[in-house]
Each structure stands twice: as C-alpha cells, then as structure tokens.
Amino acid sequence: MIDITLKRLISHLTLSAFLVAALALSAPAATHAMEDDGEFDDSCAMGLADGQMVKTDCSVNWTSEDGKVYCFSSEKSKAAFLKDPEGNIAAAKKFLAAKEAKAASGAKVFEVEDVNARVMEVIDERSSGDAFVFRDPKLDKDLKLKFDKIKIVRGMEGYGWFANVIFSDKEETKKQYAIDFWFKPEGDQLTLKDIRVQKGPKRDGDGYFMITRLPVAWWWLPVQEHPGSIEGARAWHVMSAIHEFITDNKDDDGNITVKDDETGEDLKLQFVEMHRPVRHLKGEGKYFACTDFRKPGSKDEYYDLDFWVDEENGKLNVGKVKVHKVPVQEDGIWTQVDRYTFEGMDFEETL
User: Fold this and answer.
1) For residues 269 and 295, is the Cβ–Cβ distance under 8 A?
2) Calpha distance 332→125 (Å, rounded)
3) Which of 34, 180, 223, 292 has the greatest number of C-beta atoms within 10 Å?
4) Dist CA 234 CA 236 (whole Å)
5) Residue 131 — φ and ψ, nearest 5°?
6) CA–CA distance from 63 to each of 36, 51, 228 (Å)?
C-alpha cells in the first residue's frame, strides 16, 4: 500500500514539474511575441519610406535604441533601411501623415482589406462554374483555376494596389500560379487595370514548383531595388507609364490599335510583355522601351513596338509608338525583321 501511494506521489510531482516547466518556457515566448509588435502596424518600414504599403509578419525586423521594433518585407528592405534609419523613419511618418490628411479631407483612402474584397469580386465576375478563367497572353490560352489565397497586397503611392494571388489548376491541383491583380484608385472605386502571371508551374518529377515569369513585371522592380530618392526617372517609372497607356487604350477584347508609321495601316494587336532595358536618349530627354505584341488569332505573328516616353513637368507620358520589328514568314516560320536599329543614337540604359 505504501509503495503504491509513493508511486502515485512521485507521478503527481513529475506531472506538476512538467506543467511548471512548460509554463515557464511558454511565458518568455509570449513576452517575446508582445515585444515584437512592430511600428507602423507591422507594415514594411522601408516600403513606407518609398511610398509603398506592404504588410508583413514582422519576422524580419530591427530594434532601435529606444526599443521600437521596425518590420520589413525582406532582408533587402532591412539593409536599405539601415543605410539611413532616421531619414527613412521620417520619410515613413511623412507618408503616413499624408494619408491621414487625405482621409481627413473626406477623400477615400483604400486599405488592404478593400483590395482583398475587390480581388474576390473580380474572381467572382470572371469565374465560370467553379473555375476562375484567365486568358494568359504569353501562353495564348485560357487558364482554368481555383482560388487558394491572397498571398500579399502592396500599395504604391501614385501607381495603385497590387495583389499577388495564389491559384491552383482546376484539373491538376499540384500546378500552382501566382497572379498579380493591378488596381488603380479612381474616386471611391478600385479600377482593375490588368492581370498578369507573376509565377507559373514548372514540373519537378511527379510534382511542380513555381518559377518567376520573365520578364519581371515593373511593379516588382522597386521591391527588389529600394532606390530611395534619386534624380531622374527609373526604369519602372517609364514602364508603368507605358503599361498604363496600353491598358487605357485596350478595347473590350484586350487589343490596342497602333498606326504603322511606314504603311499607314491600323494594326490591332494584343499586348504580351514588356522588356528591359529601358533606354534614355541623351539630349532629347526621351525614354523608350521595347514591347512584344501578337496579332490576334496567331500563335507566332509577333510585332516589336517601341514606346517613346516624354518627361514634362515631372510626369511621364507616352508621346509616340513606333513599329520596331515586323513579322515575316519564311519557309512557314515567322521571324521578326528590323524596321530600324539604334545605331548612331546616343542613349544610356536606365536602371
């Protein structure tokens, strides 16, 4: 009887000690989580300094001498921030103050939650049955997808909101896509400007993994670079002006009409992608970038169009569109033939 009671006592003490140890271990973790609550509501501090709204999980962070925790979307963002912490904090606060002033004036100020809701509206509008249908201009085919999650939402002051959304192929769920939705605030509405594939599936044995679609969309470039304040336009500034011109001039079928300056013909074309580098013509101050367009209904009939961008009063606008290369069929194969080259032009590449 004594042995049984003793065993029970030891067992009870062991359990109690285990519970005490577990509580002791969990307490610091809870304290750490509380201490890691970041400034700016866990938004990327470097993003705010650059005029961007990017929510983070604050797993990448930095603590200042006064004990404040600042969050970052990546190690690159953190490294850029730490080059001038005081200046970047001041820039972030100035950006948020401008948003607060805008809200106080009665203007609509969009938040991540508004973008999330708009994404779901677009998915619902463009779904057929239980599949979201997206025409991939690069593959020239309809993708039938199932929504998985909204991965990240970023806001870029003056450029709009960008939601990166994960989808799975309806028939083969292992195949996943990361698709960007670009919205532009217009009054109290978020207008859909474009939808582009950011990452697509690549087979790996019996499964798939996602790889970045090249060329990289212009709205990812500032995330990678974090340039801070510089003189002159950057490549993504120019590319965004071109992309907005394209989306503003699309018809209901997603095509734009461009006049061929050599033949006078009106070309109806489908935008596929835009290339770097962006070039800056010295002396004239103009920028230009090459783009790929496909003739609707054709798989391989591609035109290379150059968009020339003027910078006036700090604003970038497309001034003219020139046909750089035209499709020519030789022995049943479509190739592109130059209308002109860049020889003799004094230009530099824009970062």
Assistant:
1) yes
2) 40
3) 223
4) 6
5) -125, 135
6) 9, 22, 21
Show contacts of 206-210: CB within 8 Å, 24+ apart: 207/174, 208/174, 208/175, 208/176, 210/176, 210/177, 210/178
CB 138 within 8 A of CB 273: yes
Domain boundaries, the chain: 1-33, 36-108, 112-214, 230-350
The arrangement of secondary structure in 230-350, i.e. its CATH architecture, is Roll (3.10)
**Omega within 30 of 0 (cis) for the link into 296:** no
Three-class secondary structure assignment of the chain: CHHHHHHHHHHHHHHHHHHHHHHHHHHHHHHHHHHCCCHHHHEEHHHHHCCEEEECCCCEEEECCCCCEEEECCHHHHHHHCCCHHHHHHHHHHHHHHHHHHHHCCCCCCCHHHHHHHHHHHHHHCEECCEEEEEECCCCEEEEEEEEEEEEEEEECCCEEEEEEEEEECCCCCCEEEEEEEEEEECCEEEEEEEEEEEEEEEECCEEEEEECCCCCHHHHHHHHCCCCCCCCCHHHHHHHHHHHHHHCCCCCCEEEEECCCCCCEEEEEEEEECCCEEEECCCCEEEEEEEEECCCCCCCEEEEEEEEEEECCEEEEEEEEEEEEEEEECCEEEEEECCCCCCCCEEEEC
Q: What is the CA radius of gyration of the chain?
A: 26
Q: Which residue has the tokens 């200046």?
A: 87
Give me the pLDDT at residue 283, please: 77
The 10s digit of each residue's pLDDT in 245-275 is 999 999 988 999 999 989 999 999 999 999 9
